[in-house]
Amino acid sequence: MTDNKLQPFHLTATGYNINYLPEYIALRHGFFREQGVDVTVTIPKPWDRVLDHLAEGSADMALGGIWVPSMYRERVKNYTVFAQIANRCPLALLRRRQREPFKLSDVAGKTVLMKSGGGASVGLFFKMLLRENKIDERSVDYIQDLDGVMLGDLFQGGMGDYFVTDNLSALAMTAANPDVVIGMEMVSQSDVPWSVYYRETDSITPEFLDAKKRFCVALQKGIDWVLEHDAESFRDELAELFPNVPVEVAVGVTNGFRRDGMWTSTTVPRGGYERWQQGLAGARLVNSPLPYESIIHKTLPAEA
């Protein structure tokens, strides 16, 4: 298909993360163009300007946490979720090196640093994980209103007992600092629709649905490609995509995510969705869990 027949399709994203890798691969390998859509991406600062981009019509979909359309629903504005890219939580819990093996219950009575510059997801997931494991979240002291880089420096300097950050940063930190180790990689902690694509419900048109369908076909091809290729085989691409991280770390994180179910399908899984809704309700972001059908757009057969 020639470029003059491509349909512009603009995304506004809350960040640039390795858990979005299949989208980046789909862009680099021309999978979107094969489906007739010319995908471009903006990453605004602050991140919540993605909602402004949707409101003004400058973006076709936003990419970010499903907790945003959940808490806005029937309060401010309704959004519909059309696809997911990240099927697991991409965080890790760092601790100081010690002989004893880590147990999640060890955090009770301790101080946990958690980055929050990209939104509430870090604290939402970690506190949900504590509740799921019958650990009183109120038994932990949290420092979470600071930038992730600042908190990382402070943790390595002696502040707090644990640090929750993204998996890529965590592994880069442990590679550079022998006194810090990973206690838990949360990608192992079951399904949750961590990162999804959504749009204002009132702005959905047949033309958008057609373009969205083709977008999802290409995104699924990107997911499949990543799952079919050991990260060692495309380490040069990873080095280009994440130049500020040692390539060995990027390869290790990618293969870990491939193994542990970070990427599966563009379809939002009902089980993971319902689990996350329980977590959002436990954090009081929603009054009660939202039914799946109230926010998730039905997947068409051609997209499955």
From TrEMBL:
Its cofactor is Fe cation. Transmembrane segments: none annotated. Residues 17-232 form the SsuA/THI5-like domain. Keywords: Iron, Metal-binding, Pyridoxal phosphate, Thiamine biosynthesis, Transferase. It catalyses: N(6)-(pyridoxal phosphate)-L-lysyl-[4-amino-5-hydroxymethyl-2-methylpyrimidine phosphate synthase] + L-histidyl-[4-amino-5-hydroxymethyl-2-methylpyrimidine phosphate synthase] + 2 Fe(3+) + 4 H2O = L-lysyl-[4-amino-5-hydroxymethyl-2-methylpyrimidine phosphate synthase] + (2S)-2-amino-5-hydroxy-4-oxopentanoyl-[4-amino-5-hydroxymethyl-2-methylpyrimidine phosphate synthase] + 4-amino-2-methyl-5-(phosphooxymethyl)pyrimidine + 3-oxopropanoate + 2 Fe(2+) + 2 H(+). Pathway: Cofactor biosynthesis; thiamine diphosphate biosynthesis. GO terms for biological process: thiamine biosynthetic process; thiamine diphosphate biosynthetic process. It holds the Pfam family NMT1. It comes from the Eukaryota. InterPro entries: NMT1/THI5 (IPR027939), SsuA/THI5 (IPR015168). One of its GO terms (molecular function) is metal ion binding. SUPFAM superfamilies: Periplasmic binding protein-like II. Belongs to the NMT1/THI5 family. Responsible for the formation of the pyrimidine heterocycle in the thiamine biosynthesis pathway. Catalyzes the formation of hydroxymethylpyrimidine phosphate (HMP-P) from histidine and pyridoxal phosphate (PLP). The protein uses PLP and the active site histidine to form HMP-P, generating an inactive enzyme. The enzyme can only undergo a single turnover, which suggests it is a suicide enzyme. Homodimer. This is 4-amino-5-hydroxymethyl-2-methylpyrimidine phosphate synthase. It comes from Extremus antarcticus. The lineage of its organism: Eukaryota, Fungi, Dikarya, Ascomycota, Pezizomycotina.
